[in-house]
């Protein structure tokens, strides 16, 4: 259950080789996202055709075929369509653009009471290795 899941540290991992990229929780058999590296990675973004691929000369492994940074954050108020509108009382709209942050803050009476001392974003360690 969520209470048990939230009370313990977990491994959020990413694996990448020449043909596959996947993320997982705790064990590689518990995959969250799987991507075949058989096409240009930029195409997975479904960007408008007016956007130019910054990795167009990097092959199907780009941008993961060069050094990169790992960013760890807790993002709230995103409008990328990953969380559809009208789901779980989401207090902002994907159509709002930058005003989504204002919508989120204006709805603080709705979500703030659900935050407590037990609601925290704690990272024990970050490890990177090459196999």
Widest sheet: strand ordering: 1-2-3
Number of strands: 3
Q: Could you tell me the mean pLDDT?
A: 84
- The number of helical elements comes to 3
What is the C-alpha radius of gyration, as a whole number of Å? 18 Å
Major sheet summary line: 3 strands, antiparallel
Large-scale geometry:
globular
Task: Report how far the terminal alpha carbons are from each other.
Answer: 33 Å
Strand content: 5-15%
Question: Care to describe what's here?
Answer:
With 131 residues, the protein is of the alpha+beta class. 12% of the residues lie in helices and 13% in strands. It is built from 3 helices and 3 strands, in the order αβββαα. A 3-stranded antiparallel sheet has the order 1-2-3, with no helix packed on it. A hairpin with a 3-residue loop joins strand 1 and strand 2. The radius of gyration is 18 Å and the shape is globular.
Q: What structural keywords apply?
A:
3-stranded antiparallel beta sheet, alpha+beta, 131 residues
Sequence-ordered SSE layout with sheet pairings:
Blueprint: H1 2-6, E1 12-16, E2 20-25, E3 31-36, H2 100-106, H3 108-111
Antiparallel strand pairs: 1-2, 2-3
């Amino acid at each position: 259950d969520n209470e048990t899941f939230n009370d313990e540290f977990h491994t959020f991992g990413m694996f990448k080789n020449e043909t596959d990229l996947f993320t997982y929780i705790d064990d590689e058999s518990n995959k969250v996202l799987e991507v075949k590296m058989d096409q240009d990675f930029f195409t997975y973004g479904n960007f408008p055709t007016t956007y130019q691929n910054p990795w167009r000369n990097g092959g199907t492994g780009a941008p993961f075929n060069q050094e990169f940074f790992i960013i760890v954050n807790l993002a709230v108020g995103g409008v990328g369509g990953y969380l559809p509108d009208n789901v779980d009382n989401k207090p902002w709209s994907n159509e709002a653009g930058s005003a989504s942050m204002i919508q989120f803050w204006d709805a603080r009476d709705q979500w703030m009471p659900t935050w407590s001392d037990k609601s925290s974003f704690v990272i024990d360690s970050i490890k990177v290795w090459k196999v």
